[in-house]
Amino acid sequence: MEFISRSAEQTRRMGMRLGALLRSSDIICLVGDLGSGKTTFVQGVASGWGSLDAVTSPSFVLVNIYRASNEQIFFHLDAYRLENASEAAALDLDAMIESGPLVIEWADRIKDALPEECLWVTLRWIDRGQRDMLISARGERYQELLAIMRRQVYGVV
Hints:
Blueprint: E1 2-5, H1 8-19, E2 27-31, H2 38-49, E3 63-67, E4 73-78, H3 85-89, H4 93-99, E5 102-105, E6 118-127, E7 130-138, H5 140-154
Parallel strand pairs: 2-5, 2-6, 4-5
Antiparallel strand pairs: 1-7, 3-4, 6-7
Helix pairs in contact: 1-2
């Protein structure tokens, strides 16, 4: 599914739609250059999921953990500073995946450490106010998520 966001707020709202659909063990992989809107999108995902915490880029701490009022947790990993999939595996990705939804910025850097089934969101900077978002699903669960989002955004399957 392709979506052109015309503002940071639209990017957040698209993330909120996805966040409202997430459940524990869901994996969202984000790809895009610096300034393409990855963290803005994650702010929306976390908000839609129910996080009460402010979302910031975990570039220097690698992983941020957000909590909802029902004590569920949400993981936000920034793989920009990771050199390879082995470094990602050392962070205990499996435990994060089991414990809550996991959103990964710069996921292409650690692709070999990730399960095959996940949702990929590629963000591309068009100009100061616009971003191109290409969302692709790998696996049945993520095909379902994508179909729901497509219905919500465009009214069609």
